[in-house]
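Researcher: Here's a chain I'd like modeled. Treat it as a single chain, no partners, no ligands.
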Amino acid sequence: MLVLPVKAVMADLHQLQGDLASQRDADTLGMTLVGLLIAGLGLLVIWFVGYGIARPLRQMVGMLDDIAKGDGDLTVRLQVDRKDELGQIAAGFNAFLAKLQTMIGAVVTSVQQVSDSSEHTADLAIRTNQGVQKQLAEIELVATAVHEMTATAQDVARNATHAAEAANHADRAAN
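Model: Modeled as a single isolated chain. Structure tokens:
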């Protein structure tokens, strides 16, 4: 039989195990670096996508706050430069503002017409009141004149009665 030292027989195996271990370590390091690189790229892509969604939302919220906190300026519109759902939301809100602006314009016109009409009615009421006051003064003058005429007619009737009595006395005296 052949006696070989175990170290000599296992030398190739130990060499192979060493090579495989170093290859495994190198592969693990490489896969870790590639994994970290892919994860970093993935996070970067997610950040860009999130930023691409969040930025227009923040702009939209800012513009809506400006409209809400402003002086009621309905001429301000949201910027519509996107073709996605956010662009559709902005376009819909702009259409809503346009309709609201038209409705408020119609209300303002109606209020102005009502105001003009009420001013005209108030003017008519003032003129009517002045006419009634003038007629009341004239009626008082007519009443005073009628009262004076009644007093004068009574005086004339008394005087006529006195004259008739005097004529009767003169006629009797003459007889």
